UniProtKB/TrEMBL annotation:
GO terms for biological process: negative regulation of transcription elongation by RNA polymerase II. It comes from Penaeus vannamei (Whiteleg shrimp). PANTHER family: NEGATIVE ELONGATION FACTOR B (PTHR13503:SF3), NEGATIVE ELONGATION FACTOR COMPLEX MEMBER B (PTHR13503). GO terms for cellular component: NELF complex. The keyword Protein biosynthesis applies. The lineage of its organism: Eukaryota, Metazoa, Ecdysozoa, Arthropoda, Crustacea. Keywords: Elongation factor, Protein biosynthesis. GO terms for molecular function: translation elongation factor activity. This is Negative elongation factor B. InterPro entries: COBRA1. It comes from the Eukaryota.
Amino acid sequence: MSGFGLEEIGIPGGVYLKESLTHCTDPLKAIEEFQVENGILLPSLRPMLHLLDLHGVKRLDFHNSIMEELRDKLIAQISELGKREGRERDRKLKELLTKSFPVIKIKALRPVVMCILKHMSHVEDKYLKI
């Protein structure tokens, strides 16, 4: 379950969920709490989820769609940042790489990391050896 880097960037992942389920008295309640704590945090979206359920849209499909849209917007912003010059650009790209590199093994997020690497003028060796 581990190995995806979520815990490294402060997002509860498989390890956290396994621990929660192992040490709880009510697994269904633990799963529900995990979903509430780690779901999309837009209060205006909660009622919409029920509408999507009525239309047979799977939550996984919905969340994947949101993730893809946000990923594409992030890649576009990184590309814009990459067109700039100077130390501020390099500093921001390095900071983004540090924060995002732990999730490089997640296929859906890999393009973000690769976009950052593409725009960096210098990449440290530790990022070139996975």
